Amino acid sequence: MTAAGAVLATPAGADERLPGAWRLGLSRGAMEVRLFFRMRDQVVFTFAFPIVFLFLFASIFHDRMAGTGATASQYYVASMTAAGIMSTSFQSLGVSIAVEREQKVLRRLRSTPMPPAAYFLGKIWLVLVTGLLETALLLAFGTVVYGVDLPSDVTGWLTFGWIFVLGITGCALLGIAISSVPRSARSATSVVVLPFLVLEFISGVYILVTTVPRWMLTVGSLFPLKWLCQGLRGVFLPSAAAAMEPAGSWEYGRIALVLGAWCVGGLVLCLLTFRWRGRDE
């Protein structure tokens, strides 16, 4: 068969197939990132809020913690970094998806040929970009102002990497799941922020883990934020600081187990509860 015959034998539209979910997810993610950075007030609030709180708490509670080799200021750098990761994933997705659902953005997207996975991939890319940027800003601020020591070996950065990935994945899936709870976009902020705020207090973000009542820590240990805080303290604080943890160690194995379980459990919750339409439709 000649080259011309081969061309003629090619089925019409073979080169016009729709791109796959991964390629569409990348395009959707780039669009989500552009839209995010166009809203300057949201950008300022997202990145400045944890830094302001870090400055306030680290300035008020700056004494050296006995027997740990670290100061309270350095403790808050690790804890606020964990809270920042959950803020850019759980809180951000929980509110934004609820708003998009009420504005019927989700219903319109569902009626297009775009695979549903592409929408969620776009949100994940947005969470990764904003989460990495916020983490970098907090660590840079903590290193310069409060003398936090960054890991000096590959093992330390690998530990940080898997804690970050598991933590932000579990929190993002939990944010997607809770986005179906608010009855309207107006109530989304209250429904999402309230449990997040409670978790921050009982997980050792705003209050030193040594002063949080044991029963509160027990409740907090059921959720990913407590383990995300503990893991990042293990990465950025001296090894002697593990003595202030309830178990007297960083418990990396348990951290991986709990965060991994939340990744699986969050995915199950998303599959069971996510809705493309509002309750009144």
Structural class comes to: mainly alpha
Neighbour order of strands in the largest sheet = 1-2
Q: How many strand elements?
A: 2
Number of folding domains?
Answer: 1
Alpha carbon gyration radius: 22 Å
Instruction: Give the SSE order as H and E letters.
Output: HHHEEHHHHHHHH
- Tally of alpha and pi helices: 11
Approximate helicity band: over 70%
- Kindly estimate the percentage of residues that lie in beta strands according to DSSP: under 5%
The average pLDDT value, as a whole number, equals 86
Head-to-tail CA distance between termini:
57 Å
- Uncertain segments are 1-15
Biggest sheet layout: 2 strands, antiparallel
What would you call the shape?
A: elongated
Quick take:
A two-stranded antiparallel sheet has the order 1-2. It contains eleven helices and two strands. The protein has helices at 3-9, 21-38, 40-60, 72-102, 105-110, 116-146, 154-178, 185-202, 214-220, 224-236, 252-273; strands at residues 64-65, 70-71.
Chart the SSEs and their pairings.
Layout: H1 3-9, H2 21-38, H3 40-60, E1 64-65, E2 70-71, H4 72-102, H5 105-110, H6 116-146, H7 154-178, H8 185-202, H9 214-220, H10 224-236, H11 252-273
